[in-house]
Input
Amino acid sequence: MIPTSFEFHRPDTLADAVALLSRHGDGARALAGGHSLIPMMKMRMADVQHLVDLQDIADLKGISIKGDTVTIGAMTTQHELIADAALAKAAPIIREASLQIADPQVRYVGTIGGNIANGDPGNDMPGLMQCLDATYTLVGPDGSREVAARDFYEAAYFTARADDEILTSVSFAAPKGGSAYEKLKRKIGDYATAAAAVLIEKDGGTCTAASIAMTNLSDTPVWCEDAVAALAGSKLDGAAIDAAVAAMQGAIDPQEDNRGPVDYKKHVAGAVLRRAIASAASRA
Ligand code: FAD
Output
């Protein structure tokens, strides 16, 4: 199918982009890499009269690491995340997760901002950002504000972002311990059946801090506070990991679809979480 007709805008400043979104209300949408939005328009699931392309806004691009704070511009592509050596050193989980998104063709144009702002439960970055306790910066007609990734997702395709706000960047503290992103998908290029992002800090054999978030197992990403509590202070032994998996399985709410029935998805969620905990612990 082809989309309905729309007007195309390519502003070169953030202020102009915000003004266009404000002027055209919910008939306008920001365009980043277009790898989620354009298919939605073609399937007529998104009715867009004004497309505001963010491609020419230089302020939205780039990766900066100052001290232990990592800031990534919204228009940074998934390929650029993978290629950045300093980012791979500061936060290796970003590269590990990005390499599991779609395929190189998609990653050359798909952006971190589009992946985060989209609100699709299948997107990998939202859960990863919750695991990292990232902060999103949004700019709208009334100025700039920050929203925690853990507060951003309200339901599938519904987020805390207003229609006339643009996500400009994401920032987070570089993780201190070990990290891992584990994803099970049916084939290359598929979204997750289940994925787990895990951070673990250890002192000797004891887990001193952890973070766990799951992807595509509910209509929003799931940051699993109770699973974290099961690991914190433990020796990361079998009983602690079993408790963390059980707590995670109590927090998710998968639905049956072409990736499998509910029980299967819960089982896969447990398997990817166990793998991610083992990898993160060994790297810590
Ligand atoms: P767009 O499609 O341009 O935009 C997506 C949405 O976000 C739109 O509603 C748009 O208005 C809004 N938006 C974009 N940028 C901003 C901004 N800065 N501020 C405010 N709103 C904004 N993703 C995964 O995570 N995992 C996968 O396994 C995966 N597999 C894929 C397989 C295929 C075959 C394809 C085509 C896509 C796949 N994707 C996957 C999605 C891909 O990563 C998308 O590129 C990404 O989700 C959206 O990024 P984008 O830059 O293309 O955004």
